[in-house]
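Materials and Methods. Structural model of SAC domain-containing protein. The 295-residue sequence of SAC domain-containing protein from Didymodactylos carnosus was retrieved and submitted for structure prediction as follows.
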Amino acid sequence: MDIMKLYRGQDSWILCSNKNSLWFNITSQAIYTKQQPVDDSILSTWNAKFVSDVYCYIGQLKIIEDGINWLLFVKSQEYVSKIKHQEIYRITDVLIKPFADYDEDVRNLTRPSSKIELRYIEDLRLLYQETQCFYYSQTYDLTNTVQRIHKYSSIISPNTKEMPLWKLADDRFFWNKLMLKQLIDCKNNSEFDPWIQPIIMGYVDERHCKVGRADQEEKTDAQIILISRRNRFRSGVRMHCRGVDSDGNVANYVETEQILNVDDHIMSFVMIRGSIPVFWSQQGIKYRPPPKIDK
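The predicted structure was written out as tokens:
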């Protein structure tokens, strides 16, 4: 996987890959892309200083109402698995930078809410570092099961291979979709396709074993992959988020897929779980008083 480089210019953050670059203008809050690599002369013109190596752009978010927007990037990752030569990675650390004219040394503590905002930013960073539950792949659609991938591939083939992953992603498991809203909502968002990276929250792991008939000495290598995807809708704390909403989303919905790969023959078994699909609520974490049926 190619490593990108993040620079800080006079009024922009500049994210550079080998082929193009993504620019975040701090003054106008605009995001635009240049379909060419950034060389030293361009960096010198913009007085850009190297900040860090990163792997992808996660998106932006505002922590508190009167706060600023923050940009999130994958700073470090671990290889987890490979499905038909398509690599999957776990995010182990993130880089969070202000999308504003913000002196990180002074920390802009003149705003009353700054201390609270910085504390939340640190909590967000720890969320990625400690939970280790965010995953992505640049070439494999982690948001969809093998069955759904096969279904949409057969329906819109051969154009499927030309479509970016984010346009094929299952909206329920596209965890950072709202964080990428500014790129997705652009009229010419095809320019941003390489920068829109779907991320799932859940779990991915693999094991290898030998399979074959009992009377055969020679066994075949097999790969078992487990993928759990957490729904981004109604994903609140288990004891405080219950039942179903008017759109049919149940609380704490998780889809778990077990994939068996033998000689590149893929078999998949899918299980789902979630809150009881009725309108109900619960006070506290005990069953006294009993749960209430709301509708």
